[in-house]
Specification:
Elements lengths: L2 H14 L3 E7 L6 H13 L5 E6 L9 H12 L6 E5 L4 H11 L4 E9 L3 H10 L1 H5 L7 E8 L6 H9 L3 H5 L9 H8 L1 H4 L13 H14 L9 E5 L3 H4 L7 E4 L4 E5 L5 H19 L15 H26 L5
Parallel strand pairs: 1-2, 1-4, 2-3, 4-5, 6-8
Antiparallel strand pairs: 7-8
Length: 333
């Protein structure tokens, strides 16, 4: 084959080759050596990856916010290939993956999921998160699930946060990748967010709210709810005045932005997730074109609004109850 022919053949092959994008989504509060290892091993195992996107969740865990997690990932980025991008998530992690896959059908998507060796909870969570991929192959036929197993079962965000709260640098440094030199800088990025938490009690600190909302969202998808495109999600964690007001907000849905806002300060995670289920019913109503002509937020002034709220209360509560019952009974939805 002469050089001209080879050039033409290579050009045709490159045109036919789909871009391969790896997606790794989670809360990462904070990003640990385990998360870093998942990225490294995924890139080693699948050198064909063209772009690797890390979606960082918007929730707050023990005072660690999205911005601090992103700053930590950006330090890690210095030790990773240029193809790794750090992106703030505007939706629950699972929603970001599905949304990206649906919006980019021409690309091959590698959904990267980490599991700690011997941790059955991680494997169960992966099974729940990826259920729609198996059930709707025609819808997500460009997605391939790639599971990366790491050996250290104690390498968790919860344990890293415990070290931060205890102000134990040496213990915390064990949760940072060994090759990363900026351990002190990372500690200082994350530690200030912990100081206030030592003086107040946060309900459900050991519960990963974002992961539970992901699972509830998956439950609604599996049950055939009309919720796509999924809404964006924002947590407001520090509105003390609102939390101290008997008539303060717990959550709301913005139909124009297709966004759910959840107020979390002082609330039990189960109650917050229940509010999410309620607002998701409003999202369905909006997608069905039933929210467009409302002129008031007072249910006494508009019978239609009253009916919509009654529907959201009933369906949201029952959806949440059915989901939690399935968890209690170990039902595989």
């Amino acid at each position: 084959m002469n050089q001209l022919t080879k050039h033409l053949v290579d050009g045709i092959l490159n045109e036919d080759k789909k871009e391969i994008v790896a997606l790794y989504a989670g809360g990462f509060k904070p990003p640990t050596a385990g998360h870093f290892q998942v990225v490294e091993e995924a890139l080693d195992n699948y050198p064909e990856i063209d772009k690797f996107i890390v979606f960082v969740g918007s929730g707050v865990r023990d005072g660690i916010e999205q911005a601090e997690s992103i700053l930590t990932w950006e330090i890690y980025q210095n030790y990773l290939p240029m193809k790794v991008e750090i992106t703030p998530a505007k939706k629950p992690a699972i929603a970001e993956v599905y949304s990206y896959a649906k919006s980019n059908p021409e690309k091959t998507i590698y959904w990267i999921l980490g599991a700690r060796d011997g941790d059955e909870g991680d494997l169960s969570d992966i099974s729940t998160r990826t259920k729609s991929i198996d059930k709707a192959e025609d819808k997500y036929n460009n997605v391939e699930v790639k599971i990366i197993t790491t050996p250290n079962a104690s390498m968790s965000g919860t344990n890293a946060r415990k070290a931060l709260i205890a102000n134990d640098k040496e213990a915390f440094f064990k949760f940072i990748p060994a090759k990363v030199k900026e351990k002190e800088e990372i500690f200082n990025i994350l530690k200030p967010a912990q100081t206030e938490q030592l003086t107040e009690h946060s309900m459900g600190d050991s519960i990963d709210l974002e992961a539970q909302i992901d699972r509830l969202t998956q439950h609604m998808i599996d049950k055939g709810y009309n919720i796509e495109p999924l809404p964006s999600l924002e947590f407001i964690d520090d509105d003390h005045a609102n939390a101290g007001d008997f008539l303060g907000k717990t959550a709301y849905y913005d139909p124009n932005a297709q966004a759910i806002v959840l107020y979390t300060h002082g609330r039990h995670p189960k109650d917050i997730a229940r509010s999410y289920a309620h607002e998701m019913i409003h999202h369905i109503q909006n997608l069905e074109g039933r929210l467009g002509d409302l002129t008031t937020t007072n249910t006494h002034e508009d019978d239609k609004l009253n009916d919509l709220e009654a529907e959201a209360n009933l369906k949201g509560t029952m959806t949440f109850r059915n989901w939690t019952d399935s968890l209690d009974e170990g039902i595989d939805d």
